[in-house]
Amino acid sequence: xxxxxxxxxxxxxxxxxxxxxxxxxxxLKRERVYVEGANIVKRHQRPRTIRDTQRxxxxxxxxxxxxxxxxxNVMLLDPKSNQPTRIRVxxxxxxxxxxxxRSGEAID
Length: 108
Hints:
This protein is mainly beta. The protein contains 1 helix and 10 strands. A 6-stranded antiparallel beta sheet has the order 6-3-2-1-7-8, with no helix packed on it. Strands 4-5 form a two-stranded antiparallel ribbon. A hairpin with a 4-residue loop joins strand 2 (20-27) and strand 3. The two termini are 14 Å apart.
């Protein structure tokens, strides 16, 4: 996968279209990424007992978290121009390098 954790991406499709954010985690098996501030989903959680909340457990209610977005719906931002770009992969000395197609700059 060409997108990794801590990359800055722009969402190009879906309900969060146009938002930019940092990739929090990548699910390689399902080909999905979790982007900070994009595809916010609400989850209802049952309140815990009083004893658990005193120890630092979560209190119940509606919890908002980032949902998964398919990799095809996000584009990496070019480090030079801060515009969405495709990614090329080149091999130099047996090492895999990601290169922004828009400017030709190395991402790693």
